[in-house]
Amino acid sequence: MSYVGTPEFESRRPALKEAFERSRQEMEARLALMKAETEPPADVMSPEELASRLVLDRIPRE
């Protein structure tokens, strides 16, 4: 085992930083997927409700 500040550790520092960064990015990607899976579903309008809103001009047109 090498200790911080020793030549052995310092020679491995860039590889360790790269591995840590890669691991952090993978974890963030996993958390983003889990968050998307656990969010409540968005409200979806029925075709009838959409038509009604379009007729009554309650949906702004782009």
Question: What keyword list fits this structure?
Answer:
62 residues; mainly alpha; 2 helices
Provide structural commentary.
- It contains 2 helices and no strands.
- The chain is mainly alpha-helical.
- The chain has one domain (7-55).
- The longest helix has 32 residues, at 7-38.
- The protein is rod-shaped.
Query: Which radius of gyration do the C-alpha atoms yield?
Result: 26 Å
- First-last Cα distance: 63 Å
Percent of residues in helices comes to 55-70%
Please, what is the average pLDDT?
83
In the residues, how many domains can be counted?
A: 1
Indicate the proportion of strand residues.
under 5%
Unreliable spans: none
**What order do the SSEs take from the amino end to the carboxyl end, as H and E?**
HH
Main β-sheet description: none
Q: Give the CA-based shape.
A: rod-shaped
> How many strands?
0
How are the SSEs placed, and which strands pair?
Layout: H1 7-38, H2 47-55
Provide a concise account of the structure shown.
Helix content is 66%, strand content 0%. With 62 residues, the chain is mainly α.
